[in-house]
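User: Show me sequence and structure for the first protein, then do the same for the second.

Assistant: Starting with the first protein.
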Amino acid sequence: MLALLSGVGCGADAGVGTNQDTTISGSSAGVSTNGVGPTGMTSGGAINTTGTDGSLPVTSATGAGGASSSVETSSSSGTTNTGTTASVTSSAATGAGGTLGAGGATSTTAANDSSTTGEATPSSGCGQPAETGTYQDSVMAFGLERTYHMSVPESYDPNLPQRLVFGYHGSNYTGQMMRQYLDLERPPLADGTLFVYPDGIALEGQPDHIAWELGAEDRDIAFFDALLDQLKSRFCIDESRIFVNGQSFGGLMTNAVGCIRGDVVRAIAVVAGSGPRGSECAGQVAAWLTHGVDDASVSLSSGEGSRDHWAQANGCSDMTVPGTPAACLEYQGCDPGFPVIWCPHENDGGHQHPSFGREAVRNFLASF
């Protein structure tokens, strides 16, 4: 079944929830908390001080096009979530509970075994000199030249295996713009970490909608694979510590990569996303998820579907305890090394990153 989506930027662009269709309404791109998110950005990623209503002019360096468009996203095959009611033991925002869904068959093979023992897995790029700083680059994937924005700290040590974090943007954004929005490059995550922000391209038949194809055989999983291979050959990367973070349609892509490449990715952090849609995943990933109870672009039930998928995939019970920050709930009984943390929020950003979100993501990813 196809769901019709519309919107620009990090607003109403995501859409189909896990194992169900999701109704999208509004175009909530724009103002996010902490003064970090966009209030209207130019293609260079600079803050545009006009447009305080939160609208996002789409002028990306990758030809993102202009006005919002009608987008078709396939819900693919999945089963309806069923299961026991999750017990919520915190006074977190309404919607923290829900059902722990079946979510489809998932491999229980632990991904990245070395990451659970603390041993690094150095890539072939270790020992080679490499360019530092922030810059645009490209790689061939699926017969296409794909671009990305790279950020390598000046303190980079080519003999020390580094974490690698992928940051996926929402509709009609660019990697450079999402670098600012996600605000990942701060302590404690900044030390010993490389950051890459891929650029999406127009969906087939949708020239005004820059986003991601989510299927295992589609171009954007091929882009992830080719980009990871290129970076592993150029930089000293710890192959047991590959992470993915994304918001809105970037959250959909984060869930998709976490599922399809769960034998490669160590952990994911999803902001206002949905999915994964496939019936079978590879390996396991640790998962941190946040979703607005009052998200007018991607329904809360879609985020709850993602939560339930990862809780089941990681062998968690239906019990939770209050986490850190206070809005978060930590599922209990999860397989060692594969926690699931659920952080609902209300009156705190809606479809955007909540006030606590960016710091919480940095702390979560840095814990591995």
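Switching to the second protein now.
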Amino acid sequence: MSTLTLALSKGRILDETLPLLAQAGIVPAEDPETSRKLILPTNQAGVSLVMLRATDVPTYVQYGAADAGVAGKDVLLEHGGEGLFQPLDLGIGRCRLVVAVKRSYDWKGTVQRGARIRVATKYVKTAREHFAAKGMHVDLIKLYGSMELAPLVGLADAIVDLVSTGNTLKANDLVAVEDIMPISARLVVNPGALEDEARRRAAAARCACPRRQSGCAMNTALELRRLDTAARGFDGELGALIAFESGQDEARRRDGGADRQRCPRARRCRAARLYAPLRPPRRDVGGRAGNHGARRCGARTNALPVAQRDALGAAAARIRAFHERQKVGGWSFTEADGTELGQRVTPLDRVGVYVPGGKAAYPSSVLMNVIPAHVAGVREIVMVVPAPDGVRNRWCSPRRIWPA
């Protein structure tokens, strides 16, 4: 039986999370507020709760110690969100992250003068980004609680903290002077756990091939869902569906080739057609991918008038010359103790270039994107152009192909 571990933290978020879990049929076997246990079983045999500090929830989920968890946006911003999938804003634990000062403090004048100030906060990373965006010079002081005390005793000029009702600020004669952002709790999921669940669902949902009775051993799965873009949980449902489909695609890549060989009626079996796009390109005896379309398009460039070819050639030369001057190379130097320092510039292996227009020709889009990439040393450049009316190769305009 598969197990699911949820990371939660005590406090307001837990109080608002438990009713949501109850709606999903998950109830802890013991009261999390009074129990001394850190791992709590639930009424569901495969689900357990892990009780943590709020700041530790993203870390436990990131490294796979918990499959999912509930954390405030403020905590996720400080954590950075690396290695986490955030499919859903639960809409609980709502509050604001604000800048607050003493009522008698001239905040507006301080900002206008560009004076350097001291700010006390638990959210150092978020505060640094906020004040940097405003061009303000601040010294940040890391605190873990009782932020309102810092301006009162002269430790800081301002604080950055969470505010719900504002009663604590009023009680300490402080006022909020800037709203940084609204805060609420998010569901966070470990991507690996989500992928495992997608594979489990794919295996459970697999149905027999319609022609299995006649010797076809291939199985496939089909799931039709309609998502409402105006619904509150659209982003989360879409993310979960994409993850599920990714698991399906990986299974097809892994098993598709063998399944096609086992199926004597693969070309007539509708299920087998799901694997058709995954076949590698047909290659000739010399090992080169078929390039019939490229040869056809290359031939069409001969129809381009000489004047237009000369104009495009001159434009290409100027663009190349400009970007050659901009090109940044690596450098290094060795210090007296033998330490070598420097910077290595490595070009990308492959880039994609999208050229709009369809029936129209936009050679400038090709020149201004492909040439800089080529100058930078990119080894493979893939150009994508919409096919008008869905007809393949009609995009092959001489004015677009010649620059490429």
